[in-house]
Amino acid sequence: MNAAPERCSGPGRPKDLEKRAAILEAAKRLFPQHGFEGTSMDAVAAEAGVSKLTVYSHFGSKEALFIETIRCNCGDLLAWPLFEVDVKAPAHDQLMLVARAFFDLMMSDSALGMHRTLVASSQQSPKLAKLFWEAGPLQVQAALARMLDKEVAASQLQITDTRRAASQFFALLKGEQHARMLFGCGQPSPEEAEAHLQATVDMFLRAYAPR
Q1: 183-204 pLDDT, tens per residue?
Q2: Residue 123 has pLDDT above 80, yes or no
Q3: Residues 147-186: pLDDT tens digits?
Q4: Cα separation, 28 vs 21, whole angstroms
Q5: Are 20 and 40 found together in one domain?
Q6: Which end of the chain is more exposed for a tag (fewer CB within 10 A), N or C?
Q7: Within this chain, do residues 173 and 135 fall inside the same structural domain, yes or no?
Q8: Are 8 and 72 in contact, with CB atoms under 8 Å apart?
C-alpha cells in the first residue's frame, strides 16, 4: 500500500515534502528487494533522485528510514475509517472489512519482502525487529483492540481481553495462506482468499459472540 501523505510526509515546505515522499517510496521499493543490510543510503538517494545528504537530513539514519517505511506501509490501513464502529451494523460486516484490508496488505509483495528481510536480519539486528514490531503490527493490533472495545461496550461481542483477541484475529487471518506465499508455494485464488476470510471471521465470532 502507498503511504498516506498526511501520516507520512511530516512538516516542511512543499519541496521538502516531495523529496521526503520520494525517499520513502524509494526505500519501500529497495528494502523488500535487498534487505536492510543490502540497501545503502546511497542507493536510496539515487533511486529517489536526491543527494545522500538530503536523505540523512530527513531521516538521520538508515534504521530510522527503515522504521518509517514500516509505519507508512501500515499508514493507509490505520488512516481509513476502517476501525470506526457502527454499533447498529453487524459485527460480521465490520470485521470482514478489516479482514480484507489486512489480508491485502499482508499478501502484497512489499509486505512479504519486508517480512523476509526482518526474519533474515533478526539475529544480527534484534533491536530492528523490535522497532518494526512496535511501528507496524502492534499499531494495527491496538487499532483493532479499540474497535473491539466499542463492540463489547455495545454488547455486540463478549471479550475479556481485547488485545489478545485482536492478536488472535490477525493470526487466524495469516494462517496457511501467508506461510504458503512466504515459501513461494503460490498465491490463493480470489475465491480461496474470500472463503478463508469468511471462515476466519465466522470462527472469531463464534468464539466471542455474547452468551
Answers
A1: 888 888 999 999 999 999 999 9
A2: no
A3: 999 999 999 999 999 999 999 999 999 988 888 888 888 8
A4: 10
A5: yes
A6: C
A7: yes
A8: yes
User: What total number of domains does the chain contain?
Assistant: 2
Task: Decide: helix, strand or coil at residue 210.
Answer: coil
At 27, which CATH number? 1.10.10.60
Is 159 strand, coil or helix?
Answer: coil
Query: Residue 25 belongs to what domain range?
Result: 5-62
Q: Is the dihedral of CA 60, 62, 68, 69 positive or negative?
A: positive
Please, what sign has the CA dihedral across residues 182, 172, 27, 132?
negative
Q: What's the CA gap between 104 and 21, in Å, rounded?
A: 22
> Residue 47 and residue 22: Cα distance in Å, rounded?
8
The DSSP letter of residue 2 is P
What are the grid coordinates assigned to 119, written together?
Answer: 526474519
How far is CA 58 from each of CA 16, 42, 114, 131, rounded to the nearest angstrom?
Answer: 9, 14, 22, 19
Joined together, the cell numbers standing for residue 64 give 530510522
Question: Looking at residue 118, which CATH number applies to its domain?
Answer: 1.10.357.10
**Three-state secondary structure along 21-68?**
HHHHHHHHHHHHHHHHHHCCHHHHHHHHCCCHHHHHHHHCCHHHHHHH
Same domain for 163 and 78: yes
- pTM, two decimals, is 0.75
Taking 90 as the threshold, does the pLDDT of residue 209 lie above it? yes
How big is the chain by its Cα radius of gyration, in Å? Answer: 19
